[in-house]
Amino acid sequence: MKPARLIAVGRLRAGPEAELFAQYNARLRPPLAVTEIPEARGSAAEVRRREGEAILAALPEATLAVALDLGGAAPDSEGFARLLTRWQESGRPLAFLIGGAEGLDPAVLASAEAKLALGPMTWPHFLVRGMLAEQLYRAQAIRDGHPYHRAWRP
Ligand SMILES: C[S@@+](CC[C@H](N)C(=O)[O-])C[C@H]1O[C@@H](n2cnc3c(N)ncnc32)[C@H](O)[C@@H]1O
User: Are the C-beta atoms of residues 40 and 50 closer than 8 Å to each other?
Assistant: First the structure.
């Protein structure tokens, strides 16, 4: 499987969020390749626009982009595993996009093939990297029939 790319705003420094991401990313076959976009300055709209331009410029041609966004669909983990399989089988480069403190620019959201929410709450963008990597690992476990994922609940 070709590696998916994570394009995320901000520089993740050493600390608990970096460790969380590294722990799950290391379990992915293959791990996500990470491209960090520098945080922009200006008004909220300028920040979104500048960061958005940099995100779009970082996307390889024909990329199937999945934007992490509160307004996106929120599948359960099995549904996400099925979506991931469909995206990977498209044969196109796959990239997940995470915005910065001001969120993703409308131009980025409009260009994305899919929008994915990790529930209705707003999470810090550096934590979202680890949460996404965990769900990608869970999707891998679901497809492999690995007991990491226990679907049963009372
Ligand atoms: C602090 S949030 C930005 C909040 C911004 N006001 C907005 O509504 O997008 C930074 C980034 O983290 C990601 N994010 C935060 N919470 C999320 C959630 N529940 N689902 C998906 N992505 C989320 C998104 O990529 C977002 O652009």
Answer: yes
Q: How many domains does the chain contain in total?
A: 1
Give the pTM: 0.96
Predicted confidence (pLDDT) per residue in 16-56, tens digit? 999 999 999 999 999 999 999 999 999 999 999 999 999 99
Distance 145 CA to ligand 1 centre (A): 31
Residue 21: give the domain boundaries: 5-144
- Any atom of ligand 1 within 6 Å of the Cβ of 118: yes
Question: In this structure, is residue 151 part of a structural domain?
Answer: no
Could you count the other beta carbons within 10 Å of the beta carbon of residue 137? 20
Sign of CA dihedral 45, 46, 48, 49: positive
Among 47, 49, 125, name the best residue to mutate to test ligand 1's pocket (greatest count of ligand atoms within 8 A of Cβ): 125
Question: For 104-139, what is each residue's pLDDT tens digit?
Answer: 999 999 999 999 999 999 999 999 999 999 999 999
Residue 110 lies in a domain: yes
Which of ligand 1's atoms lies nearest the C-alpha of 122? 16
